[in-house]
Amino acid sequence: MRVDVNKIDRKLDKMIKTSEFSKLQDVVIFQDTNGTYSLFNKYHIKKKDTNDVVVSLNNGDDVNSFCNMKNAVCWCVLDKIGKYQLANRVIDLDMHLSSVEVHITIHSRLFKKAKKTEDKLIYLAKLNQDKLQQKAMSEELSKYIQDSYVWQQKRFSSKT
């Protein structure tokens, strides 16, 4: 269901004084009618396709590309609150996770096509290693996502 942003703006203006609304813009996330998300009056997130989510600034400059929306929002929150080292870690994990998923696909195909037992064992070992890496990176990313959610909730609570 799409909502008319202008209509919401008018309703919000009636409910909230302009000075109070400008304070809230710093902590609020909106979805525009075109499917783009606006975060904290600073970032825009647009989903290009299934595995390509682009974060850009208000001036239109693309900042980063992520494989999913959660990672993109997590990065925006961490960047906004000044946790730059963690934000950079989210970028690294997102890139490495995409790479490991490609390796899993390749090693699965090679395992299925292998004729020799030795080759099957090698590809199976590589596949297991890839899956362990994927699990570890996913768990670390989940921790950052959860932490960013908690930090954002605290920021929002302090503003309202």
Description:
- It is elongated and about 70 Å long.
- Helix content is 64%, strand content 15%.
- The model has no long low-confidence stretch (mean pLDDT 83).
- A 5-stranded antiparallel sheet has the order 1-2-3-4-5.
- It starts with a helix and ends with a helix.
- The protein has one domain (5-159).
- The chain contains 5 helices and 5 strands.
- The chain is α+β, with helices and mostly antiparallel strands and 160 residues long.
Q: What's a concise summary of this model?
A:
64% of the residues lie in helices and 15% in strands.
Descriptive keywords:
160 residues, five-stranded antiparallel β-sheet
Describe how the helices and strands are arranged.
Blueprint: H1 5-15, H2 18-24, E1 29-31, E2 37-39, E3 43-49, E4 52-57, E5 62-66, H3 69-80, H4 84-113, H5 117-159
Antiparallel strand pairs: 1-2, 2-3, 3-4, 4-5
Helix pairs in contact: 3-4, 3-5, 4-5
Report strand order across the widest sheet.
Answer: 1-2-3-4-5
Number of domains: 1
How many individual β-strands?
5
What integer is the average pLDDT?
A: 83
